[in-house]
Amino acid sequence: MAKIIKKKTPIPEQDPKVRSRNFDEVALGYREEDALAEANRCIQCKDSPCVKGCPVDIDILKFISLVKEKDYLLAVAKIKEKNALPAICGRVCPQEAQCEKLCTLAKKFEPVGIGRLERFVADYEAASGKIEIPEIAAPTGKRVAVVGSGPAGLTVAADLARLGHQVTIFEALHKPGGVLVYGIPEFRLPKAIVSREVDFVKSLGVELKLSTVIGRTLTIDDLSNQGYNAVFVGVGAGLPYFMNIPGENLNGVYSANEYLTRVNLMKAYLFPEYDTPIKKGKKVAVVGGGNVAMDSARTALRLGAEKVFLVYRRSGVEMPARAEEIHHAEEEGLDFRLLTNPTRIIGNEQGWVKEMECLKMELGEPDASGRRRPVPIKGSEFKIAVDTVVMAIGNGANPLLTSATPDIQLNKWGNIVADEETGRTTKEGVYAGGDIVTGAATVILAMGAGKKAAKAINDYLRDKSR
User: How much is the pLDDT for 316?
Assistant: First the structure.
């Protein structure tokens, strides 16, 4: 048996000092020799534990064996049997908490870089220009409306189109992709990659209608009246949360949702070439410890900030962001203010942010999340001089669609109640999945929900035809 290489093959990256001032992709991707070296670390376990960690059930062993054989186009075709968005998943999915976590090598060494190999074959296919359209089943005559063109919606649309159904995606924004285009920065997920994956879904026969707000332009009942036999709702969690502390209404305070949407989707970083201004703060505080907080803080650096504080009320151990994102943020020079909680934002006479007052925290007993609860330390107040504050503490369910659909059941947080295995809601013929059901989660979990819903919708349409 060949000697096992203990560590993953490194992925080439931009130098931190260079990349912190541009919006180009940080990770440059594997070269062919890197991909072959990494694929050859895979020991091809008979029980395929990695597949058990994949929310969309990709045949990981087979696609990696095809990489070993240098048949990269067949490898990406194998992935696309289950996942229509491999170039996206290879970049932003938390493989370390899913497929790679269960890799046999992970018991003693670093796991196989499954995500890096997925990205490699997807990018290889795009560079080759040989994008194969899979076989489409004969038309069923059934029409399905998909609300939202994020990862859940795109997955449902692709799966149902391949089964022969006529699918139309309705997207509220002027660009398709949902959180993939408005929420994830260019340096982590280039918009050209999202556009490429959306084009693949369209090539399956899916129709896309942009700038259409379901709940305002049309309702779900309107869609049914227009002849759609089923509806899937995948509108994400787009309602930003705030801390409700004094000063949050000052100029220079953003929700991460608005901040990232302005920069990512509306190209505010190119103002005035694109007419979407954003405050380019010199001293920026980002509140939160998740991937969105990392994205916001690293974006502020690229907009020219001299100092960016990452303010998080727990310690680094409890931080929910991916280890890779935290590592990149540290390399780029973010100032981590851990065990710190904002109590008020202070403005100047013109109503602009000038300081943020904070309290030091210590960790107490675990709370409902399983993480140790942050407890304020009395008398530990201090101020940070900042001119911009970005609140990245989570998102909830936007009520636009649900308020116009009174016969669909919601939970106490305003999320749609849907069956975990099928996505079925309390409204006949309506299914839902992704963040609008679970609350803010990951791209791949939304896609997993989309796959389950697509199967259930197909069964529902078939049963209705009998």
Answer: 92
DSSP 432: E
How far apart are the C-alpha atoms of 327 and 398, rounded to whole Å? 32
> What end-to-end distance do the CA atoms of the chain give, in Å?
56
C-alpha 244/C-alpha 248 separation (Å) is: 7
CA within 13 Å, CB half, 75: 27
Quick one: 204 exposed, middle or buried, by C-beta within 10 A (0-12, 13-18, 19+)?
middle
Neighbours of 132 (CB within 10 A): 13
Contact between 254 and 356 under an 8 Å Cβ cutoff? The reply is no
Q: Which residue has tokens 């209404």?
A: 249
Per-residue CA distances from 283 to 252, 260, 420 (Å)? 11, 17, 44
Q: Can you tell me the distance from the alpha carbon of 354 to that of 387, in angstroms, rounded to the nearest whole number? A: 5
**10 Å Cβ neighbour count for 148?**
32
Residues of the chain with pLDDT under 50: 1
Rounded distance, CA 254 to CA 274, Å? 19
∠ CA 127-128-134 to the nearest 5 degrees? 110
Structure tokens of 90? Answer: 């290879």
R_g over Cα of the chain: 23
Helix (H) or strand (E) holding 374: strand 372-376
What is the model's pLDDT at position 466? 64
Cβ atoms within 10 Å of 1's Cβ, excluding its own = 4
Ramachandran angles phi, psi of 82, nearest 5°? -120, -20
Three-state SS at 390? strand
Q: What is the longest distance spanned by two Cα atoms in the chain?
A: 72
Collapsed DSSP state (helix, strand, coil) of residue 80: helix
Supply the pLDDT for residue 2.
59
Residues facing residue 207 across a β-bridge: 168
pLDDT value for 131? 85
3-state secondary structure 127-169: HHCCCCCCCCCCCCCCEEEEECCCHHHHHHHHHHHHCCCEEEE
3-state secondary structure of 364: strand
pLDDT in tens, 323-347: 999 999 999 999 999 999 999 999 9
Residue with tokens 């080439």: 12
* Category of 107 on φ-ψ map: left (φ > 0), alpha (ψ -120 to 50) or beta: alpha
